[in-house]
Amino acid sequence: MKDLIILLQVTRSDYRFYPGEAGGIEGRMSSTSEIDQLIFGLLSNRAAGKTICPSEVARAMSKVEAEWRALMDPVRQRANELADEGRLQVTQHGEVVDGRRARGPIRLRLPPD
């Protein structure tokens, strides 16, 4: 049976990820489909043109607050792959950038229609 993914909005920026039978992220890396669902799920809750921080995705995937930092590399890597596919934009200071070359904080947004 496929994992059931549920996003609960506790506050505007406090999300938690609870996979159905997978038992959390402990001891395994998250799949690209899990990351995709969270990225696009979080963006769907924002107004058009608004952004999310990759750390929001990592925090949503982590059942334990201290684990989210370890998830940042897979989240950023998948965001860059989605940007390569044209499904996502990586921005810095409001400008579209190559997320692989960007240093410092980046944001994610949907490309304009």
UniProtKB/TrEMBL annotation:
InterPro entries assigned: DUF3253, WH-like_DNA-bd_sf, WH_DNA-bd_sf
Protein name as it appears in the record: DUF3253 domain-containing protein
Originating gene: RvY_13777
Organism: Ramazzottius varieornatus
Biological classification of the source: Eukaryota, Metazoa, Ecdysozoa, Tardigrada, Eutardigrada
